[in-house]
Amino acid sequence: MSATILDGRKVAAAVLERVRDRAAALFERTGVRPGLTVVLVGENPASQVYVRNKTRRAEEAGFVSRLVALPADVTRERLLAAIDELATDRSVHGMLVQLPVPEHLDPREIQRAVPPEKDVDGFHPLNAGRLLLGDDDGLVPCTPLGVIELLDHYGIPLEGRHAVIVGRSNIVGKPLLHLLLARHATVTICHSRTADLEATCRQADVLVAAVGVPGLIRGGHVRPGAVVIDVGINAIEDEAAGRDLLEGQARRLERFLAKGRTLVGDVHFGEVREVAGAVTPVPGGVGPLTVALLLQNTLQAAERQLGECG
Ligand SMILES: NC(=O)c1ccc[n+]([C@@H]2O[C@H](COP(=O)([O-])OP(=O)(O)OC[C@H]3O[C@@H](n4cnc5c(N)ncnc54)[C@H](OP(=O)(O)O)[C@@H]3O)[C@@H](O)[C@H]2O)c1
């Protein structure tokens, strides 16, 4: 059996088109374009790529997009003052501080400083609480929202199904748990202390990996016909790991050997696609959806701040 490949780029394009149309309609009614500001501290190369992607996509969607770049040695006080300034700027409807931040800064303090109504990453405790309580007036983290969007797009049922999530982070695993519960799935969440990960994963109708360990989920973790969503994005450089994880993907392996570096997920794609009913690739799976849902969150924040229901 060879699994259906769930195409995140295609689903993200559909979300972006919807967002562009809604943003244009908002502009027609109010004369205001949604404003997204990203704060970047330091020069982490991966963060620079992510931030460029976010601001570029925001512009393409007709948003006013701004980048506030601060030096890696910025003081806590200076960063909090910059956040405060954006918090009171009425042209900024959505804002986020790109993580990770340098060691001398506390990400939790930063997340609490962003006003909940502009917190388009959905990391503020008030938004986390709203999600837990099932309130629909909060902002929800983009990656778990992207997972649900992808499942919905492909008509994958959740009600009464067993979903197993591997990973309990505040940005992926835990919020996804609540989104899946709200869809009436039966949810199991696994982590590094789970006693028999393979057996637990094999119970899943829908298996989501959000771990950060390249290729952790192998064919043996998957019940035949299950849907497998790979949230992981991991850079690998080791040749033996590349040969293992890119098995059956000759062109990708060739490019990896030439470049010495590639991105892989938490799922061993070559093995899992022989067992699963459907699987997301990396890249091209959940990744593109995260940015699309960030723009959807920003639009929703703008609509609420302008007194429109969205
Ligand atoms: N697609 C996207 O846009 C997107 C967005 C965010 C993150 N990601 C990617 O998703 C992955 C996870 O990110 P994250 O921020 O959620 O990671 P994280 O905060 O490091 O959390 C990882 C989770 O995986 C668990 N874990 C680690 N090793 C394990 C093992 N061997 N067996 C079972 N569970 C294990 C950890 O368990 P403990 O809690 O017990 O330590 C933890 O709950 C990363 O590859 C990241 O790059 C992608």
Task: Explain what you see.
The chain folds into 2 domains: 30-115, Rossmann fold, CATH 3.40.50; 142-288, Rossmann fold (3-Layer(aba) Sandwich), CATH 3.40.50.720. The chain has helices at 8-30, 45-60, 76-88, 107-113, 125-133, 142-153, 173-182, 197-201, 239-245, 250-259, 269-272, 286-305, and strands at 4-5, 35-41, 64-70, 94-97, 162-166, 186-190, 206-209, 227-230, 234-236, 262-264, 278-279. With 310 residues, the chain is an alpha/beta fold. Strand 5 (162-166), helix 7 and strand 6 (186-190) form a beta-alpha-beta unit. Helix 1 packs parallel to helix 12, helix 6 packs across helix 7 (173-182) and helix 6 packs across helix 12 (286-305). The structure holds NADP nicotinamide-adenine-dinucleotide phosphate. NADP nicotinamide-adenine-dinucleotide phosphate (NAP) binds next to helix 12. The site of NADP nicotinamide-adenine-dinucleotide phosphate has 26 residues, from helix 12.
CATH topology of the largest domain: Rossmann fold
Morphology call: globular
- If classified by CATH, what would the architecture of the largest domain be? 3-Layer(aba) Sandwich
Give the N-terminus to C-terminus distance in angstroms: 42 Å
Task: Flag low-confidence runs.
Answer: none
Bound molecules: NADP nicotinamide-adenine-dinucleotide phosphate
The number of distinct structural domains comes to 2
Radius of gyration: 20 Å
List the helices and strands and how they pair.
Blueprint: E1 4-5, H1 8-30, E2 35-41, H2 45-60, E3 64-70, H3 76-88, E4 94-97, H4 107-113, H5 125-133, H6 142-153, E5 162-166, H7 173-182, E6 186-190, H8 197-201, E7 206-209, E8 227-230, E9 234-236, H9 239-245, H10 250-259, E10 262-264, H11 269-272, E11 278-279, H12 286-305
Parallel strand pairs: 1-11, 2-3, 2-4, 5-6, 5-7, 7-8, 8-11
Antiparallel strand pairs: 9-10
Helix pairs in contact: 1-12, 2-12, 6-7, 6-12
This protein binds NADP nicotinamide-adenine-dinucleotide phosphate.
NADP nicotinamide-adenine-dinucleotide phosphate binds at residues 143, 166-169, 171-173, 190-194, 197, 210-213, 216, 231-234, 286-287, 290.
